[in-house]
């Protein structure tokens, strides 16, 4: 392989509960996957098929970090989500086969510049800069399927400075993990290291400078971030 004229930053990684280091390829996100969140955002119907958008892999930040408050927003919102990490991929994966491609699961926070998103929606524009900004994907420790299986129920919670904000359950997801993988693989060829953030329940709200946001899913630990005041 020829020497690179430009060397990009090292790829992002996630840490496994068993000490493994997991390389990340891409981040895909599902919108409107909990009915109560659809309602609070002004929607009234199930999206069919699921709505997908992306974040760059460079947006990943580990749980426990203290970060500068994001630029260009006065309304930063938290969104606690189940994160799926793939060990293999393919195109047109059948739902019945989808879970065989999953390495493990984590809890994540799909941070959103809500004011920027609202402005984009009003103009019919893309959400890229509302969703894919620096440090916008906080992801906790990855728990391998071999250790925990495939969670389909469990509390999904988020708090800010100890104040409860979101309180849902994985069983409320409109689209299951196998359905998400099957549908997404019909749009792109999935690959090892792809990460899927699967949507958030109701209760999304603002995080201010100086505050700490903690996202939790039963059995998966937490994804916590603090913003500088």
Automatic annotation (TrEMBL):
Enumerate the spans annotated as Fumarylacetoacetase-like C-terminal domain.
Answer: 27-224
Concerning InterPro entries, the annotation shows: Fumarylacetoacetase-like_C, Fumarylacetoacetase_C_sf
Q: Which Pfam families match?
A: FAA_hydrolase
Tell me the protein's name.
Fumarylacetoacetate hydrolase
Alphabetically ordered keywords of this record: Hydrolase, Metal-binding
Molecular-function GO terms, alphabetical? acetylpyruvate hydrolase activity; metal ion binding
